[in-house]
Amino acid sequence: MKEKIGGLIALLLALMFAVALGAYDTSSAATANQTVTVSVPEAISIEVDSPVNFGNQSAGGTYESPSYNIKNTGNVKIDLYVQTNDTDFRPTTPNTEDTIPIAGNYKIRSNVTGSFQQLSTSLLKIYDNMPKASQGSGTPFTWTTQQQLTIPSFTEDGTYIITLIYTAVKHNVQP
Amino acid sequence: MKFKIFVATLMFIFLLGSLYPIIATGLWASPAEFRYDLKPGGTVTGEVTVKNIGNETVNVTVEKKRLLMDSIHLVYSDKGIANWITINGNTTFTLKPGESRKITFTVKAPSKINYSDAVGALVIRGLPVVENVTGGTQITHGVELVVPIRVGLPGPIIESLQLIDHKAPIILLSFIPGEFVYELKNNGTVQANMTGSIDIRGLTSHSIPIEGVVYPEDNYTLVERWAPGWTDLGLYKVDTTIKYGRFQAIKTINTTDTVVVIPVWLIILIIIGLVIWMLRRRGVEAPIRIKIERK
Fold this sequence. Notes:
Strand content of chain B: over 45%
Helix content of chain B: 10-25%
Largest sheet of chain A: 5 strands, antiparallel
Helix content of chain A: 10-25%
Number of domains of chain A: 1
Largest interface: A-B, 52 and 52 residues
Order of helices and strands of chain B: HEEEEEEEEEEEEEEEEEEH
CATH superfamily of the largest domain in chain B: Immunoglobulins
Oligomer: heterodimer
Largest sheet of chain B: 6 strands, mixed
Radius of gyration of chain A: 36 Å
CATH topology of the largest domain in chain B: Immunoglobulin-like
Number of helices of chain A: 1
Radius of gyration of chain B: 30 Å
Strand order of the largest sheet of chain A: 7-6-13-5-10
Distance between the termini of chain B: 64 Å
Strand content of chain A: 35-45%
Order of helices and strands of chain A: HEEEEEEEEEEEEE
Number of domains of chain B: 2
Number of helices of chain B: 2
Shape of chain B: flat
Number of strands of chain B: 18
CATH class of chain A: Mainly Beta
C-alpha cells in the first residue's frame, strides 16, 4: 500500500515538474514578429572649392581658371545653377577706377551645353539632374569645372574680385 | 633608394597640402522640400535644419520666395505664395564649420484664391565671412539651397496648358546640337505635370523624353537638344507630343516640324570632289610623278 502511495506521489511530482517546465519554457510554443522601421529624410547639400584665383594676368587676354570641384553632398538628385553677385569685377586696390564688366568677358563651363556659357546676375543652369553619390560609396558625386575670363585691354593693374553663388534645388520630380 | 624617393614625394605633397589647404564652402539642409495640403485660411508650421559642412565660417541669409522654374530658368518672385510664408526668428546668422541651426516657418493659405497649386521656397544662402584676397583676379564662391514648399488647396480642377510658341532648327550638322524650344503657359487652376517625347524619324529614329511641371499662371520654357550622329542624313520628321494633367497626363499638345540633317562626312566628300574637279579642269598636274619601268 505504502509503495502504491509512494509511486503515486512520485508520479504527481513528475507531472507537476513537467507542467512547471512547460509553463516556464514558452519559446518553443509561440513565435512573435517585430517590425522595425527607419525613416531616412531627404537632404539637399552642395560643397564648392573656394576661392578661385586667375592669378596675375596681362590685360587684353583671355584666360582659363584652374579646375575646381562642385560636390553633391546630399542624398537627392539636384539641378545646379550659378549667378554672380555683381555686374562687374570690382577692384580691391585703392585708387583703381577700372572694373572688369562680366558681360561678354566672364564665362563658366556648363555641363548642360558642354561649352563655356556667359555668366550674369541671373541664375544660369549649369548641371541638369546631378546624381547623388551611390549608396555606401563614402564619396560624394563630384563635378569639375572651369571659368574663363577676358581682361579688356588697358585694364588698370590691381586686384579685382567678384562672388559667384551656386544654387542647388532638388531635381524636378512630379508629385 | 626608390622607396626613399617615394616617401620624400609623399612628404612633399603632405607639406604642400598643409601650406595650401583646399577651402570649401558648403551648406546642408534637411528636408529637401515640403508638401502641404491646406484649406483656405489654413496654417501649417514646418522646420528645416541647416548645417555648415564647409571648412570656413559663413554668413547665412534665409529668404521666402515664389519659385518660377522651367527646364532652363529658375526665377524668384516676391508675389503669390511668397506672401503666405512667414519665417520665424532671425533670417540672418553666422554658422561656424560643423554648426547647425533650425529654421521654422509658417504657411498661411489665403481665404480666397483662384488656383489650387502653388510652389514657394525657403532660399538659404551661405557666403564666406572672410574673403582671402591674395592678388590677381579672384572669385569667392558662395552656396545657396532652395527648399521648395509645395501647397495644394481645394478648388475646381481646370487643366489648361497652352503652347504659345515653338522653334525647331531647319538644318542640323553632325555632332552640333540643335535646340527645340517650346513656350508654354498654364491657364488652369492646377499644376500641369508634363510627360511626352520628341520623336525624330528619318533614315534613323531617335526619341527625346520630356518631363516638367508648370504651375498655374506660370510661363514655362521647355528646351531639348539633339545632335545628329554619323549615320544621320537627309530629311527628318520631328513629332512632339506633350501630355499633361494634374493627376494623369491625358491631355496632349502636338507639333510637327521638319529638319534637314547634313552629315560632316558628306561636306568633306563634296569639298574633296570639288577640289579634284577644279584641278582636272584647269589641267594642273600632280607635282611628283613616279614611273616604274622594267630593266
